[in-house]
Specification:
With 193 residues, the chain is mainly alpha-helical. The chain has 2 domains: 89 residues, Rna Polymerase Sigma Factor, Chain: A (Orthogonal Bundle), CATH 1.10.1740; 70 residues, Arc Repressor Mutant, subunit A. It is built from 9 helices and no strands. α2 packs across α7. The longest helix has 28 residues. It is elongated. The chain starts with 13 loop residues before the first helix and ends with a helix. The relative contact order is 0.09.
Length: 193
């Protein structure tokens, strides 16, 4: 008499099975990952915080990005491609977050609006850029950050965001124009006050 196969009853969905198998066989040893993390974490967190406008969400997405990076098959080409791949993961997680319907909660309010204003010193450029960035669409913030803070080319931004390079060029041009207009308006408002 044949024994009944009960493994189908307890089958793990494909995604979970792949993650579990990748955890058992890491494609990067712990020292290599620690070094990569040291070199990339600050930039990734700054990117996520600036684009999302929410430092708490940025921390969550950063953690999830590194987890998915560790569980994935890494692209060839070394650290430059690793970093690009990591940003692609983070960008996809941001998109997923924006697509998800949700109710407004305290975590959705930017930390800088909740912080006490007394005695807080801010870098002048941050104080100037934060209000303008807050008025921009998330994709515009994303493109500006990748181009100017991270120094990525249009082609690299296209790979990270999933857009075409020609589209990146046009969208980045529009985002720069919008940022310039917002900064001019802020300057005019300050001069009137």
């Amino acid at each position: 008499m044949r024994k009944k196969d009960t493994t189908a009853e307890y089958a793990i969905p494909n995604v979970e099975a792949r993650l579990i198998s990748r955890i058992d066989e890491p494609s990067m040893d712990s020292d290599a990952f620690a070094g990569f993390y040291q070199r990339s974490a600050a930039g990734l967190r700054a990117y996520l915080a600036r684009v999302s406008g929410n430092p708490t969400l940025a921390d969550d997405l950063m953690q999830e990005s590194y987890l998915r990076f560790l569980c994935a098959t890494h692209p060839e080409g070394g650290e430059v491609n690793y970093r690009r791949y990591l940003y692609r993961i983070a960008t996809n997680l941001l998109r997923d977050h924006w697509r998800r319907p949700r109710a407004m909660c305290l975590e959705d309010i930017p930390e800088r609006l909740l912080a006490a204003r007394d005695g807080m010193s801010r870098v002048d450029s941050q104080a100037t850029l934060d209000p303008a960035m807050a008025l921009m669409r998330p994709r515009d913030r994303q493109l500006l950050w990748l181009a100017h803070a991270e120094g990525y080319s249009h082609k690299e931004i296209a790979e990270i965001t999933g857009l075409r390079a020609g589209s990146v060029r046009l969208l980045l041009y529009r985002a720069r124009r919008k940022m310039a207009r917002l900064l001019r308006e802020q300057a005019a408002d300050r001069s009137r006050a």
